[in-house]
Amino acid sequence: xxxxxxxxxxxxxxxxxxxxxxxxxxxxxxxxxxxxxxxxxxxxxxxxxxxxxxxxxxxxxxxxxxxxxxxxxxxxxxxxxxxxxxxxxxxxxxxxxxxxxxxxxxxxxxxxxxxxxxxxxxxxxxxxxxxxxxxxxxxxxxxxxxxxxxxxxxxxxxxxxxxxxxxxxxxxxxxxxxxxxxxxxxxxxxxxxxxxxxxxxxxxxxxxxxxxxxxxxxxxxxxxxxxxxxxxxxxxxxxxxxxxxxxxxxxxxxxxxxxxxxxxxxxxxxxxxxxxxxxxxxxxxxxxxxxxxxxxxxxxxxxxxxxxxxxxxxxxxxxxxxxxxxxxxxxxxxxxxxxxxxxxxxxxxxxxxxxxxxxxxxxxxxxxxxxxxxxxxxxxxxxxxxxxxxxxxxxxxxxxxxxxxxxxxxxxxxxxxxxxxxxxxxxxxxxxxxxxxxxxxxxxxxxxxxxx
Length: 452
Ligand SMILES: O=CCCCC(=O)O
Hints:
The chain is α/β, with parallel strands linked by helices. The chain has helices at residues 22-39, 44-60, 62-73, 77-102, 135-146, 160-173, 190-195, 208-220, 243-255, 272-287, 307-322, 351-354, 370-378, 393-398, 435-440; strands spanning 2-6, 13-18, 105-106, 113-120, 123-127, 150-154, 180-182, 199-205, 224-228, 233-237, 265-271, 326-329, 333-334, 337-338, 341-344, 361-367, 382-383, 386-389, 408-410, 425-426, 429-430, 443-450.
């Protein structure tokens, strides 16, 4: 099978890739198992040294990798560089902390000795999306490989060039062969990979539909999954918030990566008293974003990664307007490009409220008071994260238990950080990435009990 990646900005072909035959795939799976047998015996300090080197390879080649990201999925080049550098950061983080995370945990009992050890489990398959094509892979690979597992990557077909480069990062860093392998495969081959005896667990970042399909197959084979799925984050602005600062945060929260992020703020829930001021300042800020070629240093907003994504966003805009939302800015689509769009007077029942919108569309929603704002925020099947903007920090902290999502950020956009657990609730998935939690997902926390 042949694959092709295409620059969404100009439609030019970026690369051609040949898919693995069934025989090649079986060979790669066998090699992954073989590599695991020796990789698990490599000392932790050596594994950490290699991870540090991987971070250095990323830093040394930031321009080349950032260029591939931008060419394949249209992210503005400055954001692509930031993504590659963040991958280097997550390598450093686990290289520096793996020993502390993986050390035996003593638990006192009546035994002579009792403790929990952290053993690797084998090959972990990652099914990853195109929106942060490097970051999503490194945040799984850094802890998972360092814990002594081997990695298999099934990346999104529109970023197979990135997938190839990621495999090269590990090779250049000096990892033993087959500890990390990129699999150029079609979706149809996924079931075979998941059910193969070599694969012990699966991590997926993607849509609710993909998550459910993968978890179903994995469940049949009693294999663990970590799922990081869609989101419809609320960005709540209280009456007392610093509006200029909130607008600045809101702009990045919604427009980073051209809005193509699960944790992007999508529903802006504004107290009635500040609704007009926030909407007018936010509209001005969004209208000043410079659209254009994502390879251009000054571009703030590029195309969406594929035309079907722009079509889908446009449908959500059109449907919401039919349902009564007011078009305040943008609204037009041209191939993969969709104008940054703001809809006012959005209420539950409209597409822009109920559905995840994966692009530069911001829904402005009025709330009567704080209780109403939290009630609106909770009116979502997703649960990735919520932002609250306010000057009353203590009150905001007190209200953190009103949010059932996986994250609650005050005066900051919901973002991932290697030091903090990352993941969702409800239809946003389960399990945690990053921090110690992320490393614990794919180890056998083994109870050791020793009696004299
Ligand atoms: O679609 C999910 C985006 C996650 C971005 C991040 O981890 O920062």
